[in-house]
Write a sequence for this structure.
C-alpha cells in the first residue's frame, strides 16, 4: 500500500501555503462530473468489499462535492493544517463516500479505495481518525458528531481562529437523544462557526423514518432548539453552495442545512430502497449500476 | 484525631492553579460544578468553563472535540454518570482515538451515603478499566489528588480520576511525590500484603496496625494508579509475603481485586481475599454505616488477611 504525501508546513514558504490551500475554482459542470466519479467509487468500493453502506453514501454525494471542492479551506498535503475548515462525518457509515472524496482531493491514492474494509487497510468499515488522513473523527456509533463538532468550534473560538466546522448527520441518526443535547448546547453556546447538514433521505434501516420513528416536524424542531434552518434540494450543487454561503453570514446562532435527498441516489434500483442501507451490490448489480453512472 | 480534608476541594483548587499556568486547560461540567468543585475554576475563568447542563453524553463529545483541537479538557460529573451514562461516548469519542481528555469524577463508591443506589458508583472502575488506553487513578487523600490531577494534565492521553464525596484523613504529608504507574509502599511487612485504593488505603493502614498486635506484619500498598497497574509491585508482594488482600470501594467484579488477581494468577499464584462489595446494590445510610454494612472496614480487611494467611 502506498503512503500519501504529507506536507511539512515548516519547509513551506508562506506563499506556497496559500497556493496549496484546496479552494478549487471548480465549475458546476466539473463538480457534476466529480459527483458522478464519487458515485462510481462508492459502487466499486462496496462491491469489492462485499459489505458496507452504499445507500446513505450515495445520498450525500453532492453535499460532500460542494464542501470539498468549493466550500472548505483545506490542504490535502497537510491534513493537520491548523487553519483548515473541519468536516466531521457524524453518520460514520457513509465512510465510503468520505474516503472517495478524500482520495479525489489527493489525501491518499485513488487506488487505495478498493482496500475498503480489508485487513490492514487504512479505510475501515466506519471512520477511524487515528489511521486515515483527512478523517477528523472516529464515528459509526451514531449521534456523537455534533457534540464533537461543538468542541472543535469552541476551541477555534477560544483561540481566535476563523476556521469553520461542518457536521454531516443522517436523519435517522437524529433519533439519538445526544443529537438534541448537542442541538441545545450549540444554540446555548452560540457557536455560529458551526453548520450542521442533515442528509434527509427519509429512510433508515427498518424503513421510512415516518414509520420507524417519526421526526416531523423536523425543521421546526431545529428552529425551536435555536437554530437557523435552511432547506435545500440536497442533490442541487448550486442550492447547496448558496446555503453554505448564507450559513457563513449568520451570526449568534448555529445553522442547520436540511438537505432533502434520495437514498441510493443515482442508481435506479438503489433509490429509495432501504435494503441498500447496509448491503453492498453484488457483481451483477455493480455492473448495472456502473452502466447507469457512465 | 487525623486531619480530614476534602479531595474534591483539592481537585477544584488544583484546576485553578493549572488554569493559571496553562491557557489550554478548559473545564466542563454537567450541572454539578458546586459538588465537583469545578466552580472554583469557573469563577476565575468563565470563558474556559463550559457547563453542559444535565447532558453527560454531550459533555463527553464536546470534551473530545476540544481535545482534538489542542485543548486539555477536564470534564467532571459524578462517577455514577461517567462512565455509566455515557460509556459509548467515552469509548468512541475518547478511548478509540486516544484523545487527551481528563475525566475527573467525584462521589465514587458508596461513601456518598444517603442519596442511595442511584448515586452510588460501584461499577465505574470495571467499565473504565475495560477501555484500552485509559489511565485510571484513585487517589487516597487530598495531597495525592492534587498531584494526580497535575500528572493527568502533564501526560498526554485519556485519564479517569475517581474521587469520593466525604472528607478523608490525610495519609500523606506535603512532601509526598506521586509517581504515575507506581504502587506506593505505605508500610513494610512480610506476612501478607494489603493492596488498597481510595479511602480504603486508610482502612488498610488501620487494619495493619491492629494486626500487628496479633503478631501479623502486613505490607500495605497504595495502588492509586489502577491502570496501567504496577505488576512488578504485585509480583514482588506475592513472592515476598505469600498472601494478598485487596480493598476497594467498588464491586468485587472488575475493580482492583480483579486486576490484582489477573497479575497474581499469571505470575505468582498465592492465596487472595477481595474486600469489596459483593454482587449487590447498596442502600441509603450514613457513609460509615454503609461501609460497615457492605464489608468495607478495617475489620473486614483484618478478617481477609487472617483468612488468606490460613490458606498459605
Amino acid at each position: 500500500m502506498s503512503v500519501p504525501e504529507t506536507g511539512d508546513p515548516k519547509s513551506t514558504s508562506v506563499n506556497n501555503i496559500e497556493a496549496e490551500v484546496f479552494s478549487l475554482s471548480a465549475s458546476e459542470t466539473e463538480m457534476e462530473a466529480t459527483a458522478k466519479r464519487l458515485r462510481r467509487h462508492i459502487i466499486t468500493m462496496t462491491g469489492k468489499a462485499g459489505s458496507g453502506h452504499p445507500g446513505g453514501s450515495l445520498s450525500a454525494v453532492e453535499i460532500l462535492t460542494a464542501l470539498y471542492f468549493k466550500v472548505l479551506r483545506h490542504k490535502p498535503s497537510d491534513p493537520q493544517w491548523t487553519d483548515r475548515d473541519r468536516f466531521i462525518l457524524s453518520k460514520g457509515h457513509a465512510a465510503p463516500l468520505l474516503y472517495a472524496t478524500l482520495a479525489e482531493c489527493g489525501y491518499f491514492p485513488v487506488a487505495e479505495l478498493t482496500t475498503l474494509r480489508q485487513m490492514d487497510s487504512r479505510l475501515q468499515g466506519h471512520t477511524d481518525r487515528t489511521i486515515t488522513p483527512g478523517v477528523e473523527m472516529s464515528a459509526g456509533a451514531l449521534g456523537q458528531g455534533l457534540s464533537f463538532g461543538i468542541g472543535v468550534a469552541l476551541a477555534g473560538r477560544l483561540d481566535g481562529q476563523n476556521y469553520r466546522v461542518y457536521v454531516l448527520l443522517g436523519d435517522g441518526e437524529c433519533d439519538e437523544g445526544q443529537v438534541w443535547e448537542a442541538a441545545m448546547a450549540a444554540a446555548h453556546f452560540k457557536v455560529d462557526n458551526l453548520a450542521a447538514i442533515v442528509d434527509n433521505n427519509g429512510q433508515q434501516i427498518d424503513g421510512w423514518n415516518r414509520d420507524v420513528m417519526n421526526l416531523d416536524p423536523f425543521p421546526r424542531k431545529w428552529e425551536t432548539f435555536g437554530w437557523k434552518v435552511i432547506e435545500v434540494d440536497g442533490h442541487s450543487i448550486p442550492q447547496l453552495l448558496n446555503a453554505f454561503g448564507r450559513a457563513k453570514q449568520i451570526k449568534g446562532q448555529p445553522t442547520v442545512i436540511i438537505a432533502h435527498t434520495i437514498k441510493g441516489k443515482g442508481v435506479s434500483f438503489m433509490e429509495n430502497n432501504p435494503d441498500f442501507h447496509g448491503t453492498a451490490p453484488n457483481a451483477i448489480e455493480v455492473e448495472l449500476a456502473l452502466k447507469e453512472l457512465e | 484525631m487525623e486531619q480530614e480534608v476534602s479531595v474534591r476541594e483539592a481537585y477544584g483548587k488544583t484546576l485553578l492553579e493549572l488554569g493559571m499556568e496553562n491557557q489550554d486547560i478548559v473545564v466542563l461540567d454537567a450541572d454539578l460544578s458546586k459538588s465537583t468543585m469545578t466552580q472554583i475554576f469557573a469563577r476565575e475563568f468563565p470563558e474556559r468553563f463550559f457547563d453542559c447542563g444535565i447532558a453527560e453524553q454531550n459533555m463527553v463529545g464536546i470534551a473530545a472535540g476540544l481535545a482534538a483541537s489542542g485543548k486539555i479538557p477536564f470534564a467532571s460529573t459524578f462517577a455514577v454518570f461517567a462512565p455509566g451514562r455515557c460509556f459509548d461516548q467515552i469509548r468512541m469519542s475518547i478511548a478509540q482515538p486516544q484523545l487527551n481528555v481528563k475525566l475527573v469524577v467525584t462521589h465514587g463508591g458508596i461513601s456518598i451515603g444517603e442519596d442511595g443506589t442511584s448515586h452510588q458508583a460501584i461499577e465505574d472502575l470495571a467499565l473504565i478499566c475495560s477501555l484500552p488506553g485509559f489511565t485510571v487513578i484513585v487517589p487516597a487523600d487530598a495531597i495525592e489528588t492534587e498531584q494526580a490531577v497535575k500528572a493527568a494534565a502533564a501526560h498526554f492521553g485519556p485519564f479517569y480520576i475517581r474521587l469520593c464525596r466525604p472528607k478523608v484523613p490525610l495519609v500523606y504529608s506535603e512532601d509526598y511525590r506521586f509517581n504515575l504507574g507506581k504502587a506506593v509502599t505505605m508500610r513494610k511487612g512480610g506476612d501478607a500484603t494489603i493492596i488498597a485504593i481510595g479511602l480504603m488505603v486508610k482502612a488498610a493502614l488501620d487494619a495493619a496496625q491492629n494486626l500487628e498486635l496479633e503478631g501479623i506484619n502486613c505490607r500495605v500498598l497504595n495502588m492509586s494508579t489502577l491502570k496501567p497497574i504496577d505488576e512488578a509491585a504485585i509480583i514482588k508482594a506475592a513472592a515476598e509475603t505469600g498472601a494478598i488482600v485487596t480493598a476497594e470501594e467498588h464491586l468485587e467484579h472488575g475493580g482492583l481485586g480483579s486486576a490484582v488477581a489477573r497479575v497474581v494468577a499469571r505470575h505468582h499464584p498465592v492465596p487472595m481475599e477481595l474486600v469489596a462489595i459483593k454482587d449487590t446494590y447498596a442502600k441509603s445510610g450514613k457513609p460509615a454505616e454503609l461501609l460497615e454494612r457492605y464489608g468495607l472496614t478495617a475489620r473486614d480487611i483484618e478478617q481477609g488477611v487472617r483468612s488468606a494467611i490460613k490458606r498459605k
User: Anything to note?
Assistant: The two ends of chain B are 36 Å apart (CA to CA).
